[in-house]
Amino acid sequence: xxxxxxxxxxxxxxxxxxxxxxxxxxxxxxxxxxxxxxxxxxxxxxxxxxxxxxxxxxxxxxxxxxxxxxxxxxx
Length: 75
What we know:
By secondary structure, this protein is an all-alpha fold. The chain has helices at residues 8-34, 40-70. The relative contact order is 0.18. The model has no long low-confidence stretch (mean pLDDT 76).
């Protein structure tokens, strides 16, 4: 059975999500360094989730880019 392939449109969406995660992570870090929060543990959890999401998306995008570079991906 043929595995479903990711399309160029899918890759663009993943790149967008990765970029959003990076921006939110940077904003969270900036806000954390400039203000006091009532629940710092919750902020740390949010930052951790965002970091993990961004890292996972980055890995997917990199693998897809490699597949297209080697001619393994289908558009």
